[in-house]
Amino acid sequence: MFRENVVPNQQFTDHLTGRILTNYQLILERIASAAQSIGRKPDQVRLMVVTKGHPLEAVQAVVAAGARLLGENYVDEALVKMQALSSYPGIEWHMIGHVQSRKAELVSQNFSCVHSVDSLKLANRLNRYTSGGNHRLPVLLECNVSGEESKFGWDAWDERQWNALTKEIAPILDLPGLEVLGLMTMPPFFLNPEEARPYFQKLRRLQMYLKERFSTFSWEELSMGMSGDFEVAIQEGATIVRVGTAILGERSG
Ligand SMILES: *Cc1c(COP(=O)(O)O)cnc(C)c1O
Questions:
Q1: Does the residue 157 lie in any domain?
Q2: How many domains does the chain have?
Q3: Residue 203 lies in domain
Q4: Ligand 1 center to 132 CA (angstroms)
Q5: Residue 1 included in any domain
Q6: Which of 10, 85, 86, 198 is deepest in the core (most CB within 10 A)?
Q7: pLDDT digit string (tens) for 95-150?
Q8: Ligand 1 pocket, 73 CB below 6 A?
Q9: pTM of the model
Q10: Interval between CA 226 and ligand 1 midpoint (Å)
């Protein structure tokens, strides 16, 4: 999956770099148009480049193209890349994959935000490794708004259960080492991105609901939208879109 031992030839690298630069700029333009299509400012949406499953050369190419917000799903894979890119200033690494509790310490020490907080147990673990210092770890709560069983996240598909959900997540808001900034979701995969729209709308409604219930928190971040549907997500209020394939190409493995 992650070919750290492969040294590509120069021609391959140049080609890869050019293609990634073109894709990266194109996606930035599409983000700006999607924002403008509903009267949002392009700078209200951040582009995260999802680098999981891509080799280091691809990550370097997208950083050279200007990307500074990178998303990874697996801690071990991410650590190798972080190490290799540690001399580039200003790169922000966000964790977007399911985190096993035993990896919580590594995650809290190496990522600047975790989008995939999906249980109180994980929140407690992350909190344990961040509190004590004056650092608070920004996190998002991953919500399953589709009811798909294969998806991680807080069960949030049934709006009648949102009251119960608030009771489950309330303890997380009190953790001194975490700073809850908003919500993340991954809708089911559709060939037609319009079909994802109701799920983005539901996450937005949940955001409003939580804002009302817990009004001292801003809930401002909505991490939603991937290669196939980020424009729809932006129209529905995404503040961070997570794009991999459309910039870096297909993942190997
Ligand atoms: C892989 C992944 C993405 C990126 O998906 P693409 O379709 O390649 O853009 C976004 N979010 C999460 C949580 C992912 O696991």
A1: yes
A2: 1
A3: 10-248
A4: 33
A5: no
A6: 85
A7: 999 999 999 999 999 999 999 999 999 999 999 998 666 789 999 999 999 999 88
A8: yes
A9: 0.94
A10: 6
